Amino acid sequence: MKILDLFFRFTLGGVFLAFGINKFITFIPSPPMLPHAARFISALLETGYLWQILGIMEIIGGALVVSGRWTALGLLVLVPIVVNIVSYLLILQSGIGFPPFVMSAFLLSAGFYLAYRRKESYLHFFRELESDSNRE
């Protein structure tokens, strides 16, 4: 299980590091996009700041996931990004074929696996919620 954990940490973290850096220094070509998906990405680029913030958050989250010590925190940073990527791939890019499903399956399975392996890190959030509800 430790090997699988390392594999998912380095691949998931590496994907986010690479794509985060790519938002500043383009070295990965853009894949083919459907017209409405291209308009969405174009709108993000035209805002002038949102694309860069997304890149910074991907770099931070990816680095934390790769670090090992801060993987649980990195996963929390990446959760909203993964939700948006999976939604984008499955809704806006679904006509492209099989690749969006593969990437979505990888992001979800790697994220869930890593989070499950670190479930103790997240339990205190739920204990805190439980103690707050008992006070009322």
Based on the model shown, name its key terms.
136 residues, mainly alpha, 0% strand
Helix content: over 70%
Number of separate structural domains:
1
Q: Which word captures the global form? A: globular
Q: What fraction of residues sit in β-strands?
A: under 5%
Order of helices and strands: HHHHHH
Weakly predicted, low-confidence segments: none
The helix tally amounts to 6
Q: How many β strands by DSSP?
A: 0
Describe the main β-sheet briefly: none
Describe this structure in words.
InterPro entries: DoxX (IPR032808). One of its GO terms (cellular component) is membrane. The chain crosses the membrane at residues 7-28, 48-66, 73-91, 97-116. By secondary structure, this protein is mainly alpha-helical. It has one domain. The protein is 80% helix and 0% strand. The chain contains six helices and no strands. The chain has helices at 2-22, 35-46, 50-67, 71-92, 99-117, 119-135. Helix 3 (50-67) crosses helix 4 (71-92) and helix 4 packs antiparallel against helix 5. The longest helix has 22 residues, at 71-92.
